[in-house]
Design goal:
Number of helices: 10
Oligomer: single chain
CATH class of the largest domain: Alpha Beta
Helix content: 25-40%
Number of domains: 2
CATH topology of the largest domain: Rossmann fold
CATH architecture of the largest domain: 3-Layer(aba) Sandwich
CATH superfamily of the largest domain: Alpha/Beta hydrolase fold, catalytic domain
Strand order of the largest sheet: 5-6-8-7-9-10-11-12
Number of strands: 12
Radius of gyration: 20 Å
Strand content: 25-35%
Largest sheet: 8 strands, mixed
Structural class: alpha/beta
Distance between the termini: 60 Å
Length: 326
Amino acid sequence: MDKNIRQITDGQYNYVSLDAAAGKMVAVRQSHASPSEVFIINPETGDAKEISLENKAIFDQLTIARSEPRWIKTTDNKQMLAWIIYPPHFDPNKKYPALLYCQGGPQSSVSQYWSYRWNMQIMAANGYIVVAPNRRGVPGFGKEWLEQISGDYGGQNMKDYLSAIDDVAQEPYVDASRLGAVGASYGGYSVYWLAGNHQKRFKAFVAHAGMFNFEQQYLETEEMWFENWDLGGPYWDKTNPKVQNSYSASPHRFVDRWDTPILVTHGEKDFRVPVSQAYAAFNAAKLRGVPAEMLVFPDENHWIAQPQNGVLFQYVFFRWLDKWLK
């Protein structure tokens, strides 16, 4: 048997499942430009043919936003891949508001995926340039890049976020006075952290299912293994430098600096990051006199999985962003 490994396909998309059939490969493919469709792939040539065509009738009527890779220099002189998604009918002579997309996980790659919560195509179609960086802590760029984030939630990965938005904001077609930041789970935590540490860069935030108070989170979550691994252990361990560094990055410690409108969303059946985190963040904003709204889904968990809830989320999401960025 030939054990040599070779790349079969090439292009800006993700294959999310794969099986063999009659000398061919059958796979489900998605990208920033297309939801999941079934393809047959010739393993010898890499040629791929779509066979499901489930969304063709709809997408034939749409102008699809362009998604491009961009390599950005980080504060420690490394190269970081970010995806930049441009509005349909993009005109470089115009100025657009921009959104920094903060990935969840935190150990999840920012690739050519299709999501019904954070949908790059819909965000771009609403007139926003989307900046989606593969900051420290994501897979695909080596073990050191992936593991650096553990115990350093408020550190290098946050500098990576700011490097990404600062780099793109210099473009003449980006309105640097109309920047927003959005994210869920670790991305929601990132938004809460940035709210107290963004040095006036952003004019609006959206956080879904984010960690706001690490000490509270440690005592509430059902995912104790992860808290012990990534944060280093319980907050009362005063002798552990990793623990002390981790908990010093809890967003609730920076609420005194909050001054930017924020939308907080969460699912009441979320046991990974309980909804009390959202209540605390929302209350903190209101007590600070910061414009804030909260959307809670009684029947959702850590994700927004039900179609009608997804429609409501998108409606509230863009209503909020348009109010402050347009």
